[in-house]
Design a protein that fits this description.
single chain; two-stranded antiparallel sheet; 7 helices; alpha/beta; Rossmann fold; seven-stranded mixed beta sheet; 206 residues
């Protein structure tokens, strides 16, 4: 199989603004609820990192109104769109698995349906790294897989667009997150069609 990260980058580049259309057709209110929950927990002027920011809507637009926000995405096209959509926020093209930040750099980290685009073998180490990036009492909100699966969709959203995912099951994610040091504040199954994902709200206790 082609390099999974190249598949993800090229897929989101090819989709461009169609990814936003897809999001709007699913459940945008779900995102609003998650973002409101996180915002209510963060201190004033918090520093927030988003892994997999796409075009900046709605997450960057919402969080940058209250907080110092940095969005990361592997797709240059999505980052270009994010900079146009949310000019007051900061964005960077990068592979989330190879990012380097100082310890205690952020009060909050958010990753909605993005870590599951990484090869599964890289995900536990990223959770440990995120824990190090967070300040004491910081929060990590993420959406992971619910059932184990790794594969490629050859016609995702747009015919001919390849996309790669790699999931563990919810119990495995729970174990990895606890092993990384997180306290689980809330977790729940997020139903989507005939399957779904897992919502985690986590905290780095002081």
């Amino acid at each position: 199989m082609e390099d999974p990260k190249r598949i993800v980058q090229q897929g989101y580049d090819q989709l461009g603004s169609l990814y936003r259309t897809h999001y709007e057709e699913t459940n945008p209110l779900r995102y609003s609820n998650w973002l409101t929950t996180l915002a209510q927990l963060l201190p004033a002027k918090a520093k927030v990192l988003e892994l997999g920011c796409a075009d900046g809507i709605p997450t960057a637009r919402f969080l940058s109104q209250q907080f110092s926000y940095l969005g990361i995405d592997i797709s240059p096209i999505q980052v270009e769109q994010a900079r146009a959509n949310v000019p007051e926020a900061l964005f960077q093209v990068a592979d989330m698995a190879t990012l380097t930040f100082s310890r205690l750099s952020f009060d909050g980290v958010i990753a909605l349906y993005s870590i599951i685009h990484l090869p599964l073998a890289e995900q536990p180490a990223l959770f440990k790294t995120i824990y190090q990036w967070l300040a004491p009492n910081g929060y990590f909100l993420c959406i992971t897989g619910a059932d184990e699966w790794t594969g490629v969709d050859s016609d995702w959203i747009k015919p001919g667009t390849l996309m790669y995912w790699s999931y563990a099951d919810a119990g495995t994610y729970r174990s990895w997150l606890i092993e990384a040091g997180f306290t689980i504040v809330e977790s729940q199954f997020v139903a989507e069609g005939n399957s779904g994902h897992t919502f985690f709200l986590l905290q780095k206790k002081a």
